[in-house]
């Protein structure tokens, strides 16, 4: 299909190359340099979407990210919903659909790569229009480290959309020279297609660079598709320009109605005539440029409708000289047409009153209600805005440290002024940073600015259509109208934030770029208060939508969170282990043999540990090396029991509490020397307990001569567990006397294996005779294999965390954080024996004497045996009690506690559980009930130690 | 995301730090001598002012040292940081 609306020449497109794309299945063509919107307009297509609530046809209403109309669904090269046709760069093979309201998410994974880069600069300039380029040149010439980011495909900003001249030549020649000069500065980073979408504290700006989107299927796979730049700038120059503001009138949403400045962009940048017959409706001088430029390009401008009583005398003369009819003191009151505008209804307008009108035929209606400075980044950085009565716009209302707003973002709208303001902004930044300015910093000569006639601030044209504002659209994306604002105000809402949420204006894809200030103005009018008092809604990042994939960057899948594996991980994988996540650790849960499920594997592993010998990879246990003359003093303060009396060579179990007296961790402590301990923590508590120690040492007891260091990853820990463990350990370490007499329970011995230091400890987390083998991780596989080899005659069985849990639960050993929940004291766990009565103080001690601690109804750790001998109670199940008459109490049924651990026991040949139960120890022997799948299962309360309560097995 | 000036490392990203609550709440010399109410105040009660507040911070992903700071809880601005052994500044 040939382009029907392309100009014969001009624009920033590559006319020598043609690219094919499809829209709604129709094959169309365009050129490199086009956006999807410009290519659609060039092919005569104005309608691209259907509105979400009302189903009205919508078209392209602006030329860039402020467009509220032209939302499309992209199908190829990758499905993406709700992109703006105006910001999608055209490439070969692009396939898009008109969007019926909502988009459709991709149902295939995004295989593109996304990444992030941190960057630090002296001066960040946002926007490469006249002000931004001038600022970047000034900063670069002074030798500052500069970043210049701009969201368009090429630098130039507003200069790309006009016919301005600088130094007597087309302004884009100056732009090209400026870009070339910046490229010659080694400390300048210049990024196009990069949107600064959020400004945060202390000069932190996030920017999204679209690196390969414009290449389509030709994008190289090794280059990330989009990149988030995390820029920390000592100073920021915001030169983000301004958005043109529409005027609201009845049926102002039809395809073919667009902002006047957008028409100039389509004409000058893309060589597109957005219509054949135009009506221009304005409240200010800027739209006269659009009327004149379109006229010169061959568009019949039917009328320029200026709402100001006197219009603009100077510009009127220019228009009339060109043969354009100017109607001053007139407004557009409505439109006709369905798929595209066919008529503008024009009527005289004076003192807020609309007279009798007439229809003017047109296929393009351009609108300008003035300009809103793009103050988003300033406002996100908590800059206060002020309302400018003359401009009808919100401007930066204060100076911010380290952030200067320049050019039209600051309300400067002439070219010479923008250049000078950019230079000034950068100069101020350099001054604040004490960077001396360059000797030579010349600005190009711009034409002497002409003072425009004062604009009229007009938010909306009174609705004479009879629709009472219900077709006067404020937010096209939300189908929200003047009538909706009136309804909000009528409902008593006065805050602009409430009006926004009631009407949903500004909550769509465009975040109110064209509708926000209109809403403030119309709301103020309806309330009869100054616009300054209404203010704006809060500007929040992101300025334009950012894909979650880009924010996630490389932090996806396996890279989302570190995986920690032990030195034996490959062995476990080869042995067919099923893994579970314990914090960031991958731990073997069980090792199924062919045909085994978890239950069968765990019963087999448990039986091996209780009757023969098992072996566990316990390397994830937290290990902290505590050294210094006051190491024992520190441990006495942190543990509930006495550690200073521990002999070198011995091991003691201990409990730590918070100041509130609740258990936070437990584990064993090895005294390595008078001034050195190895503290073992739970796997999950390793980092927390090291932090806890550091906090007390640094903040409360800095006089203690003690240092704490994590050695979790410096030692693997291999418990060899079961009645035959002595045979195995004795065989591998023949120089160690492993008899009970020579190597008693809760002691440790150092030895060597082929010259490699090894530490052995008689510690048991199962109640069985057990030896823990500690060795440097480099030798873990060799030592593990020697233990397996030596254990082969006894059927040594590797076991995982599930078996470890069953074995410890059978002995009533709690897991802190599973059997406890931050409301449990050592006494509640039946560990009063681990609480020192001798020590004058330790963390938590004072809390134990609170009256609540003596409450006999505190929840206590007990064992539960389901009476049927069959049911495995789900962990977390509630526990209830029948009344003496055998009935449940009336609802709400009082809860006695809950099941904290529950397993099937090989040793008991039945399921069992641990539970926290109110007054639990006084209930031993009672029968209580646990609801399971709608049935009340009777369970017997027992002591918490169900296997070997006498402790007869620990020495084999 | 603001920069926090660690007294040992200089200005670093906020995510490197963790918060430690109100500063200058020392562990009592003799907890056993306190009433339950006095002990409860030490364990549970902390000020929560709007405005300047003396707080504990830890450079947990950096040097792992604790320090104190005066921060405005309304603006989040750190007005000064100081070492644990420095006296509590007068908060205007």
Automatic annotation (TrEMBL), chain A:
This is Sarcosine oxidase subunit alpha. InterPro entries: 2Fe-2S-bd_N (IPR042204), FAD/NAD-bd_sf (IPR036188), FAD/NAD-binding_dom (IPR023753), GcvT/YgfZ/DmdA (IPR028896), GcvT/YgfZ_C (IPR029043), GcvT_C (IPR013977), GCVT_N (IPR006222), Sarcosine_oxidase_asu (IPR006277). Its EC number is 1.5.3.24. Its cofactor is NAD(+). It is found in: Cytoplasm. Keywords: Cytoplasm, NAD, Nucleotide-binding, Oxidoreductase. It catalyses: sarcosine + (6S)-5,6,7,8-tetrahydrofolate + O2 = (6R)-5,10-methylene-5,6,7,8-tetrahydrofolate + glycine + H2O2. Residues 471-554 form the SoxA A3 domain. Residues 859-948 form the Aminomethyltransferase C-terminal domain. It is an enzyme of class 1 (oxidoreductase). Residues 122-381 form the FAD/NAD(P)-binding domain. Residues 568-839 form the GCVT N-terminal domain. GO terms for cellular component: cytoplasm. GO terms for biological process: tetrahydrofolate metabolic process. Signal peptide: none annotated. One of its GO terms (molecular function) is nucleotide binding. Belongs to the GcvT family. Its main location: cytoplasm. It holds the Pfam family Pyr_redox_2. Binds 1 NAD(+) per subunit.
Automatic annotation (TrEMBL), chain B:
It comes from the Bacteria. It comes from Geodermatophilus amargosae. GO terms for biological process: tetrahydrofolate metabolic process. InterPro entries: SoxD (IPR006279), SoxD_sf (IPR038561). Gene3D superfamilies: Folate-binding superfamily. GO terms for molecular function: sarcosine oxidase activity. This is Sarcosine oxidase subunit delta. NCBIfam families: soxD (TIGR01374).
């Amino acid at each position: 299909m040939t382009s029907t609306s392309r100009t014969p020449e001009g624009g920033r497109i590559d006319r020598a190359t043609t690219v094919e794309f499809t829209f709604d299945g129709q094959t169309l063509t365009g050129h490199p340099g086009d956006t999807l919107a410009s290519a659609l307009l060039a092919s005569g297509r104005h309608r691209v979407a259907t509105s979400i609530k009302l189903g009205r046809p919508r078209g392209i209403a602006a030329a860039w990210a402020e467009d509220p109309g032209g939302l499309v669904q992209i199908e190829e090269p990758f499905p993406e919903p709700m992109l703006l046709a105006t910001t999608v760069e055209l490439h070969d093979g692009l396939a898009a659909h008109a969007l019926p309201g909502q988009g459709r998410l991709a149902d295939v994974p995004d295989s593109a790569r996304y990444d992030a880069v941190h960057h630090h600069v002296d001066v960040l300039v946002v926007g490469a229009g006249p002000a931004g380029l001038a600022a970047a040149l000034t900063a670069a010439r002074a030798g500052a480290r500069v970043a210049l980011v701009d969201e368009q495909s090429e630098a130039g900003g507003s200069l790309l959309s006009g016919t301005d001249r600088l130094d007597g030549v087309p302004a884009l020649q100056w732009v090209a020279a400026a870009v070339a000069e910046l490229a010659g500065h080694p400390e300048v980073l210049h990024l196009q297609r990069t949107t600064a979408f959020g400004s945060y504290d202390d000069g932190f700006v996030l920017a999204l660079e679209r690196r390969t989107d414009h290449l389509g299927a030709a994008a190289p796979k090794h280059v990330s598709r989009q990149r988030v730049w995390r820029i920390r700038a000592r100073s920021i120059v915001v030169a983000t320009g301004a958005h043109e503001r529409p005027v609201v009138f009845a049926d102002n949403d039809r395809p073919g109605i667009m902002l006047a400045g957008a028409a100039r962009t389509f004409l000058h940048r893309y060589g597109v005539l957005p219509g054949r017959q135009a009506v221009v409706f304005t409240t200010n001088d800027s739209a006269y440029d659009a009327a004149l430029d379109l006229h010169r390009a061959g568009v019949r401008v039917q009328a320029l409708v200026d709402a100001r009583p006197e219009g603009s005398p100077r510009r009127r003369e220019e228009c009339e000289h060109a043969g354009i009819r100017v109607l001053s003191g007139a407004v557009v009151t409505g439109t006709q047409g369905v798929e595209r505008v066919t008529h503008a209804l024009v009527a005289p307008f004076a003192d807020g009153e609309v007279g009798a009108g007439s229809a003017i035929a047109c296929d393009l209606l351009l609108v300008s209600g003035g300009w809103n400075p793009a103050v988003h980044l300033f406002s996100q950085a908590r800059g206060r805005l002020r309302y400018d009565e003359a401009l009808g716009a919100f401007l930066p209302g204060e100076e911010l440290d380290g952030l200067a707003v320049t050019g039209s973002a600051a309300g400067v709208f002439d070219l010479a002024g923008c250049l000078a303001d950019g230079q000034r902004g950068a100069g101020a930044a350099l001054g604040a940073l004490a960077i001396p300015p360059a000797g030579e910093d010349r600005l190009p000569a711009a034409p002497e600015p002409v003072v425009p006639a004062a604009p009229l601030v007009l938010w909306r044209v009174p609705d004479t259509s009879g629709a009472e504002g219900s077709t006067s659209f404020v937010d096209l994306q939300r189908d929200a109208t003047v009538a909706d604002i009136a309804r909000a105000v009528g409902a008593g809402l006065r805050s602009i934030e409430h009006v926004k949420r009631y009407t949903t204006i500004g909550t769509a894809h465009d975040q109110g770029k064209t509708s926000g200030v209109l809403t403030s103005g119309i709301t103020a009018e309806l309330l009869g208060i100054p616009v300054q008092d209404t203010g704006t809604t809060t500007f929040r990042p992101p300025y334009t939508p950012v894909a979650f994939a880009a924010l996630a960057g490389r932090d996806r899948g396996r890279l989302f969170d570190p995986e920690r594996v032990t030195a034996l991980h490959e062995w476990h994988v080869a042995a067919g282990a099923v893994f579970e996540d314990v914090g960031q650790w991958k731990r073997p849960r069980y090792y199924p043999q062919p045909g085994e499920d978890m239950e069968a594997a765990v019963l087999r592993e448990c039986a091996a540990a209780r009757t023969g010998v098992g072996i566990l990879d316990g390397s994830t246990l937290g290990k902290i090396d505590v050294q210094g003359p006051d190491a024992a003093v520190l441990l006495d303060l942190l543990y509930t029991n006495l550690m200073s009396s521990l002999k070198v060579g011995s091991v003691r179990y201990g409990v730590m509490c918070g100041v509130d007296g609740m258990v936070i961790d437990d584990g064993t402590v090895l005294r390595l020397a008078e001034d050195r301990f190895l503290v073992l923590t739970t796997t999950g508590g390793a980092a927390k307990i090291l932090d806890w120690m550091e906090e007390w040492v640094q903040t409360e007891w800095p006089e203690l001569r003690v240092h704490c260091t994590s050695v979790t990853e410096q030692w693997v820990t291999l418990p060899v567990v079961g009645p035959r463990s002595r045979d195995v350990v004795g065989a591998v370490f023949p120089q160690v006397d492993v008899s009970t007499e020579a190597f008693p329970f809760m002691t440790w011995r150092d030895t060597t294996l082929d010259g490699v230091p090894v530490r052995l400890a008689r510690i048991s987390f199962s109640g069985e005779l057990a030896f823990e083998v500690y060795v440097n991780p480099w030798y873990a596989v060799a030592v593990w294999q020697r233990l397996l080899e030596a254990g082969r005659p006894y059927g040594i069985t590797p076991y995982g965390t599930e078996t470890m849990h069953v074995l410890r639960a059978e002995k009533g050993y709690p897991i802190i954080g599973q059997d406890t929940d931050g409301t449990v004291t050592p006494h509640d766990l039946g560990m009063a024996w681990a609480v020192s009565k001798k020590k004058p103080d330790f963390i938590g001690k004072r809390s134990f004497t609170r009256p609540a601690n003596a409450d006999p109804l505190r929840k206590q750790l007990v064992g539960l045996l389901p009476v049927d001998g069959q049911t495995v109670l789900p962990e977390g199940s509630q526990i209830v009690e029948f009344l003496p008459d055998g009935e449940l109490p009336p609802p709400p049924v009082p809860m006695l506690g809950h099941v904290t651990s529950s397993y099937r026991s090989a040793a008991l040949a039945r399921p069992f559980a641990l539970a926290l139960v109110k007054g639990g120890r006084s209930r031993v022997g009672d029968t209580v009930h646990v609801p399971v799948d709608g049935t009340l299962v009777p369970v017997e309360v027992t002591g918490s130690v169900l296997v070997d309560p006498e402790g007869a097995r620990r020495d084999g | 995301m603001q920069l926090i000036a660690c007294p040992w490392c200089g200005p670093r990203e906020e995510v490197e730090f963790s918060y430690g609550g109100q500063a200058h709440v020392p562990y009592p010399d003799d907890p056993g001598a306190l009433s339950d109410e006095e002990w409860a105040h030490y364990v549970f009660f902390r000020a929560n002012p709007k405005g300047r507040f003396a707080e504990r911070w830890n450079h947990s992903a950096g040097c792992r040292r604790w320090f104190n700071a005066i921060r405005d809880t309304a603006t989040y601005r750190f007005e000064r940081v100081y070492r644990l052994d420095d006296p509590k500044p007068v908060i205007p």
